[in-house]
Design a protein that fits this description.
The structure is a single chain. The protein has three helices and two strands, in the order αββαα. With about 80 residues, it is α+β, with helices and mostly antiparallel strands. It has a two-stranded antiparallel ribbon. The two termini are about 20 Å apart.
Length: about 80
Amino acid sequence: MLAADAAEFAEEHGIHHLPVVSSGRVVGVVCTCDLHELEPDRPVSGVMPAPAVTIDGAAPYGTALELMSEHKVGSVLV
């Protein structure tokens, strides 16, 4: 997906982080703030941290915070 398309989708749906999917698997997450650093016709894969940082849904909230801090990301996928 191109940066301009991803930014438009995020704005329309009021979301800040988008999963990046390749061949049906989540390969990363892109933040809308990162999209503004890209040329509109560049793919979002150019700014996504990879691999995606994930956490089990039963994990404590503090664990999610630690993962986000450790990986310097603003979200984790559950």
